[in-house]
Amino acid sequence: MKKWYKGTFAVTLAAALAVTGCSAGSGSSDKNSAAGQADKKAVKLKLWGAVPEENGPKTVVDKWNSANPDIQVEYVRYVNDDSGNTKLDTALMTQSDAPDMFFSYGENNLYRRQNAGMTEPLDELIKKESFDVDAIIGNDNLIKYKDQIHYLPAYKNIDFVVLNKKALDEAGEKVPTDWTWDDFAGLAMKLNKGDRKGAFVTPGADLLIGKFTLVSSQPKDAFYTADGLSNFNNPAMKKGLEIQKSLYDQGAMVSWGEGLANKLDPANELLTGKASMVYGGAWMMRSLKDTAKWPRDFAVAFAPAPQYQKGTNVNNGGMNDFMSINKNSAHKDAAFKFISWYLKEGNMDMIAGGRIPTNKKADFNQVTQLIVGDSKNVIDQESLANVLKGNYTFAVREKAVAFPQITNITKEEAEKYFMGVQPIDKTLESMKKRADQAIQAEKK
Fold it and tell me: What pLDDT score was predicted for residue 140?
């Protein structure tokens, strides 16, 4: 894991944004002077996020700015990759053109910024604004840092399986509701027909069926045991990897190697008819509605994420789009006013792009309608609504010792198993041994 240190100096910004008067005689009108005064009084905030402007942020910011002339927000997009996150971290460390508010995507990025002292504790701001965290977000959906709240999540990332409804009907099967990964494998075999594979799971470190079964069996800190070492010799991990390999071996999924080499995408595999069902999530909604790019003669239906055991209803998605305030912002009160509004109502304009609000009071029938829009002919609205309003136990990760390293280790060892290079027991043994070594090395 990257370590960030606080050895940077704080740059004090000028308190007043001096407007250099263009004293070209009598060319300055009273109207311009009044506008200048109003402009000086408005608090100007910068919000950095990774969602393209056209997918919701522009509408959100325009709506806020229209209703709040005294607090004006500018949205700045950064790309959520290594270079983009480094750009944001650098801005926060040097305070050069830094944001007042920013989104972190995923716990790794959030925890790094908290540990580096980049985030402002929000507890006093929450009290001042009378923001009811438990009623809106739910206290159980937050992880405090040093007994303080340093972020509020804006997006409920729900994982689910998307199915070709036509293929499902042809096989005489209903949309699954409460099912296991064994059920998933069984359905994949029934839907496997000709050039259309039964299923597709994106090959990669974060998308191993073994990871999903492990998380389903232990939603909190699934990768770690109680003593802080790795949990990769868990029977749930073994079960998931064996299911995944059986699907490869039986030809019900495109091979691991082919999927990696061709960088296959779940939306494209499903919507071009190459796979009957794919593991995905709310982030796919824009693609699923795009009939210009993917013209098709079938609708898609939605099933909850399969479980290690029935009835557990664990979801590997969880809270995301973590909103924080820059520790060095000069306008923390104004920034939190925007965050409060965004979480209560502002992010409703993000729904069409597939970003599900974390607000517990949101009407999920309305949320579903906003997501579907005019795409009822290609989206099965009933099954989507059932998935979105499910009562899930979300995966939680508080421990992060050597997390990037052990995540990569799981991919490397699983790949050997999928490619027939080593048996399952040797895979789990190597996975645990290497991961434990990485954890112990970082603890030193």
Answer: 86
Domains in the chain, number:
2
| Helix 424-443 with 403-418: angle, nearest 10 deg | 170
Averaged pLDDT, 165-194 = 97
**Structure confidence at residue 349 (pLDDT):** 94
- Segment 390-419 shows an average pLDDT of 92
* Domain with 295 in it: 159-316+377-443
Question: What is the C-alpha radius of gyration for the chain, rounded to an integer number of angstroms?
Answer: 24
With a pLDDT cut of 90, the percent of the chain lying above it is: 79
What is residue 279's three-state secondary structure?
strand
Could you tell me if 237 and 151 lie in one domain?
no
**Which among 105, 137, 145, 103 is positioned nearest to 121, based on CA atoms?**
145
Residues with Cβ within 8 Å of 424's Cβ and at least 6 positions away in sequence, in order, are 238, 241, 242, 245, 417
What is the sign of the dihedral through the CA atoms of 50, 53, 56 and 60? positive
Q: Which of 209, 192, 166, 189 is nearest to 306 (CA)?
A: 209
142-175 exposure pattern, b = at least 16 Cβ within 10 A, e = fewer:
bbebeeebbbbbbbbbbbbbbbbbbbbeeeeeeb
Confidence of residue 338 (pLDDT cuts 50, 70, 90): very high
Do 352 and 385 fall within a single domain? no
Count the Cβ atoms, other than its own, within 10 Å of residue 290.
14
What's this model's pTM, rounded to 2 decimal places? 0.79
pLDDT, position 39: 53
Q: For residues 367 and 364, what is the distance between their CA atoms, to the nearest angstrom?
A: 5
CA atoms within 13 A on the CB side of 383: 22
- In this structure, the dihedral spanned by the alpha carbons of residues 217, 410, 107 and 385, taken in order and rounded to 10 degrees, is -50
